[in-house]
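Quick one - inputs below.
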Amino acid sequence: MHVPDGILPVSVTLSGYVVSAGIAWLCLHRIKQRHDPREDIPRAALLTAAFFLASLIHIPAPPASVHLVLNGLLGVLLGLFAFPAILIGLCFQAIMFGHGGLTTLGINGVILGGPALLAAFVFSLGRRHHINGRKTAIAGFLAGSSAVALSALLFALVIVTNLATHLRADTEQSALLALLLAHLPLVLLEGAVTALVVTFIGRTRPHLLKG
Amino acid sequence: MTTTTPYVLQLSALSFSYPDTGRVLNDISMTIHAGERVGLIGPNGAGKTTLFLVAAGFFAPTAGTVELLGKPVVKGGFRPELGLVFQRTDDQLFCATVAEDVAFGPRNMGLSHEEVERRTLAALAAVGAEKLGERSTHQLSEGEKRIVSIAGVLAMRPEMIIFDEPSAGLDIRCRRRLIPLLQEAAPTVLVASHDLELILEVCTRVVLIDEGRIVADGCPRKVMGDEALMAAHGQEKPHSLVPHQLPHRH
Amino acid sequence: MLRKVSGTSLLARWDPRYKIAALLALAFSFSAVSRIQTIPYMLGLLVVFWLLSGVPLAILGRRLRYPSLFIALVILMLLFAGRGDVLLTVGFLTITDSGLNRALLVAARFYSILILAMLFFAGTPLLTTIRALQALGMPYIITDMALLMARYVEVLHQDLRNLHRCMHLRGFRLRGWSLTSLQGVALMVANLLLRSFEQSQRVYLAMRLRGYGQADGLTPPLTATPAEGLFFVIVVGIALGLGWLG
Ligand SMILES: Nc1ncnc2c1ncn2[C@@H]1O[C@H](COP(=O)(O)OP(=O)(O)OP(=O)(O)O)[C@@H](O)[C@H]1O
Ligand SMILES: [Mg+2]
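Output:
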C-alpha cells in the first residue's frame, strides 16, 4: 500500500511532505509537553522495530500472499508516537529495500499514519471501561480493520485520481473498484490479527493497552 | 565490619515491592565502604537485581533510604558516580557501534568532544578492546559484548560499579579475562553472581540474601564455607572451599 | 573516529548531509520530468552517478525486482487503457499515443528515482544517514528512535526467527485461510511485540544510568570540504535545470 515514485505530480508529492511534516510536528509537540518526553522513546523505538519486522512476515493467503500492514495495531500501542514511527519505518524501507518511494514519503506517511492515529482514537473509545474480554477484542478488530480500510481508500483515491486524466472513464471506475476489492481480504485479516494480538496483550500486559 | 573509611553506598532499612507483588526487598541495611569489593549472592528471585535498581534510583523504595557518597539517591536523578553493568549485554549496548556506545555516557556528562574521545579510547584500551571500536554492537560475540559493555561504564569513571551476573554466558577464557577487570574496574565494586568461585576470587566481602532479606554478611570464606547456611538458602558451597581441597589454594 | 567512512567511491565519501539534500533535489526534479525529450538527460545523469558510485550492476538488478511488481501494473494500465488516438491494436487491446507516452514517462521516472536512491545509499551506513539527518536539524525524538531501531531491528529479527523455529518444531505451519494459522500469526506478532517492549524497559534503564537526556547537542560535528560544498551546488543546479526542462 505504498504509492511509488514517478506517478504523482510534484505538486501532490510536495503537499504530501508538507501535510506529513505538519502532523508529525503536532505529534512531537504534544509528546514534548509530557513530563519526560524521552521516557517513552525506547519503548516506541523497539515496538516500531518489531512492527517493521512483523510487516515483513509473509502470509500465504491463496491465491496470493500478503504482508500485514498493522498500522491500526501500531496506533493502538504507540499513540502519538505512531505517526513519527510510520515515517521512520517508511524511511527504513526506502533505504534498506528501495521499497515505497522517496518523493512519495510524505504522502505515504499520511496514507498509513493518519489512519493509525484514528485507530488509536477508535480503540481508546472501546477500552474506556474494560481492558479485558470481548470488548477489547471488538475494539481491536474495529481499530485494525478501520485503519487498513481507510488507508486502502486513501491509497486508491490518490492513485486513481492522479491517473484519471490519462485513462478512459470506464477504466478509471473499474480500477478504483478493483483496487478497493483487492484490499478487502486484507481488511478482514488485519482486523482479526489486531483483535487477537490485543486480546493476548490484554491478558499478559494490560497496562500496555492503557495508552 | 567496623572501619573508619568513608562509605560509598549506604542502604538503610530499605523495603520495596513492585506494584503487583508482595515485598521483594525487606528491611535491607548495609553500608559499602570505599575500596571494598562486595559479592551479593542468593537464589534466583532473591531480589538482587531489584536491589540494584532501587540503589541506582530507578525505583523509589517503599521504605528506607539510599545514600551515595553522602547524598541521597533520588528517583530519576543522574549519578555518574555509580555505574551499573546489566545482566543482558543487548540491553546495555544500545548504540549501533562500539565506539558510540562507549562514548554515550561521557557525552551526557557534558564533556568536550576531545575529552569524550580520550575517555572512549582509554576505556576500550583498559578492557583490551581497542580493535573493536568501529564494529557494530550486534555483531559481537557474547564475550566481546560483555567486555565492551564494561568499557561503556568505565568511560564514565564512576566511584563504584555494580555488576549484575557478569560471567553469565561466558566461556572459561572470557571469564578469566573478566576477573582482573572486576578487581580493577573501580575503587569500589559490588558484584551479584551465581558463579560463587568468581565471587571468591574477586570479593573481599560477601552478602547473602534470600527472599529480600540479608541472611549473612561477612568474609567470603566464612559465609560461603558454612555448608548449613548455604544449603538453607539454596546455595552450594564452592568446590574450592571443600576441606580436602583447601590446602591447594594459596 | 566517530564519523564512519565506508566505501571508497566518490559518492560514498561525500558528506552525508549534502548527499541527502542532493538526493531529494534530484528525485523531485526527476519526478517533474513530463516530456519524452527530457528522458535522455535524466538517464545520462543516472549513468554519471552510477559511475561515481561504483555499484555493480548485478546488485542493482537484484534489488529492482520486488519494487517492480506494482509499477508494472500501473504501466500496463496506462499503456492499454489510455486516452487519445489509437496507435496499435493487439487482439482486444489497444495502445494509444498518449497512453504510450504516459507509460514511458512513468516507467522512466520510477526506475530513475529508484536507482538513484540505491546509488546514493549504497556505501552509506544507515547510521551515517541518521546522524546526517540529526545534523540537518531533525528533532531528537525522531533521530533517537531511528538510532535505537537501527540497533535493535537485528536483535528482534533473531528473536522472530527463533520464535518461528520454536513454533515450527512444535508443529505449527502457516497455511492459507484458517483460524489456527491466523492465531499463529497473532501469537508471533504479540510475542515479538512483548519481547520488544520488555527489552525496551531494560534498555531505557541502561540509557538513563548513562545519563540519557542530560546534555544536549551530543552529536560529534561533521566537517565538509569546500569541494564537497561546490559539488552540492553543482548538483542542485543540475536538478533545477532538469526541473526547468520539465
Ligand atoms: N518488573 C517486575 N515486576 C514485578 N515483579 C518483578 C519484576 N522484576 C522482578 N520481579 C519479582 O521480584 C523478585 C526478585 O526478582 P529479582 O530479579 O530482583 O531477583 P534476582 O535475585 O535478580 O534473581 P536472578 O538471580 O534470577 O537474577 C522475583 O520474585 C520476581 O518475580
Ligand atoms: Mg537478577
